[in-house]
Recover the amino acids of this structure.
């Protein structure tokens, strides 16, 4: 018997294709149409965010004061600007006709601007730009702004989740495997941390330690990562405890495997499903927390922007220029929506008998 | 039972102690201080201010003094609002937040359970799919998006409801609709999902089959058997929900300009108003801890399977 038998055979000596947990889960996920659509949308977001610098978007920092507050449209910006000027002129004319002479200079200036804009419509390449999401009050492209905001938001979500999973998995696994006083100590600590009103602590942290004009992303990471590992640590600990006395662990131990090898090679792969589900569900919550802080003006600071700070900016001008609020808000909502759907789908796929489905 | 309550009450002491200590030192060790503003304060004035607020003492002494004051229920004077004490500021703002939060949570629970019941009884039909899609939207959309969008639609375009503000009296209820709706939406969504899942489990259980088998009318089965067991998880969710409402109210209060604790909290954190931040953190934590405690006790009464040791 030098060659290993790799094919499984049933009682009639027919070959069976072994189905791994992952193939099985993928099969279940594929049947969930909403989750699959969500997966593709998330992939699309990720590609756009990663490749944004090499894709032909406008620079989100370039200001064009002729193109301020243009509405979303597929037509070139020059035409939109001319239409805006024209409607401005009609309003001004009405006012001047009804006796408001102080507005006369404004009217003349607007008319001059209109002639200049008409002259430049063909000659100036700037006027051929198309802003499908509109522009902001400094004439910057909202599409590019929201994409670069998405990069920051997704980065925060990704790094936050990564730290949470790493710290949580390691501490949870050690706590569950070693048990005894160490387990007691760690879980007491986790209990106390759960009791903290943690968003308040993060707000204090952000308000106190960030300096004006300096990017405060590091503190943001620290603040968010501080408490995020708690849940995953508890979950992994529970999984490890339920598995650590099973036969395959004993077998590994009898062959001389040390605790490190048992935890990482034998126990954690069995908890991988839970870890993946947790990851996919905590990514949106990180993004939400970051945006929450940015909305309050305590997250990322200018010149960086995230979805939260864009929404907060847009909310100030929503009465006149609603697209400045709606563009980042809708973009963010779609992403979070898909992440949540994907997380639910992954949970159903990886853990079909899940008791705590909600 | 009473032994359990006493033990739980005692375990609140270290939690509160850790919260107070952690936030005290977090605040004190941060760079800058309550008097460092754009306007340069003369050295002598600064020293007098420091002395007045006992800031010139060593950190340990300040800490012990603060602990003593808090135990007596005195949060000290505010650093920024020179004429008021922290106690007064909190007493002015806390009722607004509590009214808003309780109202929102009440609506969320009622609507959430209702939707949960409908979608669990009509599982996999269009009612179920619609309800659960709305619920996922509710969980995915952040409060600070719902708030401004509702403002845009109902206040600015349709002019049905006031844009923001907080009025007492008959119009007060109208002013409260949008903020309460905003605040309750995610919790409504979560409660709907939660109650659907747990009701579905109960619907498949043996005792419900028995109830049906002995010929009880469906209405009685649902009301007396299913709901009783199926809504228990909602009670245990109310504790964490309350803490979420507290955080959420920070956003809602700043979007809708409501003079509540959340808005003051953000301002005080930015102003480095040491005593006010501390007071708010303590009040918030007390509410949080107390709510979790109450929920646990109530749960024990509702669910006879839980034994308190």
């Amino acid at each position: 018997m030098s060659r290993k038998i790799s094919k499984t055979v049933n009682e009639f000596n027919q070959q069976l294709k072994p189905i791994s947990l992952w193939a099985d889960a993928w099969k279940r996920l594929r049947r969930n149409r909403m989750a699959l659509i969500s997966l593709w949308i998330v992939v699309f977001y990720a590609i756009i965010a990663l490749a944004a610098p090499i894709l032909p978007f406008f620079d989100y920092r370039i200001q064009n004061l002729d193109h301020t507050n243009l509405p979303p449209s597929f037509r070139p910006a020059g035409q939109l600007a001319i239409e805006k000027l024209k409607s401005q002129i009609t309003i001004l004319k009405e006012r001047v006709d009804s006796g408001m002479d102080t507005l006369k200079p404004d009217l003349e200036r607007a008319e001059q601007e209109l002639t200049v804009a008409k002259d430049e419509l063909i000659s100036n390449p700037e006027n051929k730009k198309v802003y499908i999401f509109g522009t902001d009050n400094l004439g910057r492209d909202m599409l590019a702004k929201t994409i670069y905001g998405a990069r920051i938001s997704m980065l925060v979500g990704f790094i936050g989740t990564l730290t949470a999973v790493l710290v949580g998995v390691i501490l949870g696994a050690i706590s569950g495997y070693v048990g005894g006083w160490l387990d007691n100590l760690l879980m007491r600590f986790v209990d106390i941390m759960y009791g903290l009103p943690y968003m308040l602590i993060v707000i204090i942290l952000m308000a106190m330690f960030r300096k004006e004009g300096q990017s405060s992303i590091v503190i943001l990471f620290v603040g968010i990562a501080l408490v995020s590992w708690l849940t995953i640590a508890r979950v992994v600990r529970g999984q490890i405890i339920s598995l650590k006395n099973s036969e395959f662990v004993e077998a590994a131990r009898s062959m001389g495997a040390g605790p490190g090898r048992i935890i990482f090679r034998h126990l954690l792969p069995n908890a991988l499903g839970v870890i993946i589900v947790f990851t996919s569900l905590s990514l949106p919550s990180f993004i939400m927390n970051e945006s929450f802080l940015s909305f309050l003006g305590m997250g990322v600071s200018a010149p960086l922007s995230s979805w939260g700070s864009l929404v907060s900016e847009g909310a100030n001008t929503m009465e006149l220029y609603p697209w400045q609020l709606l563009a980042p808000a809708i973009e963010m909502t779609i992403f979070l929506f898909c992440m949540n759907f994907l997380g639910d789908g992954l949970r159903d796929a990886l853990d079909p008998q899940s008791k705590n489905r909600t | 039972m009473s032994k359990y309550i006493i033990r739980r009450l005692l375990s609140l002491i270290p939690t509160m102690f850790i919260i107070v200590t952690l936030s005290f030192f977090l605040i004190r060790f941060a760079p800058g201080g309550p008097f460092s503003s754009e306007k340069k304060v003369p050295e002598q004035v600064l020293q007098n201010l420091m002395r007045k607020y006992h800031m010139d003492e060593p950190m340990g002494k300040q800490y012990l003094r603060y602990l003593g004051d808090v135990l007596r229920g005195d949060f000290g004077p505010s650093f920024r609002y020179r004429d008021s004490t922290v106690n007064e500021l909190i007493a002015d703002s806390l009722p607004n937040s509590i009214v808003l939060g309780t109202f929102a949570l009440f609506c969320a629970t009622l609507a959430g359970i209702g939707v949960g019941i409908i979608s669990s009884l009509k599982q996999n039909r269009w009612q179920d799919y619609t309800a659960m899609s709305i619920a996922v939207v509710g969980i995915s959309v952040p409060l600070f998006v719902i708030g401004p969008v509702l403002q845009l639609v109902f206040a600015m375009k349709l002019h049905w409801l006031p844009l923001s503000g907080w009025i007492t009296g008959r119009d007060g209820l109208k002013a409260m609709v949008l903020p309460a709706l905003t605040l309750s939406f995610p919790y409504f969504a979560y409660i709907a999902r939660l109650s659907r899942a747990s009701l579905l489990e109960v619907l498949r259980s043996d005792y419900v089959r028995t109830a049906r088998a002995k010929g009880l009318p469906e209405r009685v089965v649902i009301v007396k058997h299913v709901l009783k067991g199926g809504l228990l998880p909602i009670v245990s969710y109310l504790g964490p929900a309350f803490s979420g409402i507290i955080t959420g109210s920070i956003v809602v209060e700043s979007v809708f300009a409501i003079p509540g604790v959340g808005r003051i909290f953000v301002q005080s954190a930015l102003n480095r108003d040491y005593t006010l931040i501390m007071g708010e953190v303590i009040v918030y934590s007390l509410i949080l801890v107390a709510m979790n405690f109450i929920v646990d006790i109530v749960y024990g009464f509702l669910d006879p399977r839980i034994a308190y040791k």
Q: What stands out?
A: The interface with chain B takes residues 192, 195-197, 199-201, 203-209, 211, 284, 288, 291-292, 295-298, 308, 311-312, 314-315, 318-319, 322, 325-326, 329, 332-333, 336-337, 339-341, 344, 356-358 of chain A (CB under 8 Å). Chain A is about 70% helix and 0% strand. The first strand of chain A starts at residue 8 and ends at 9.
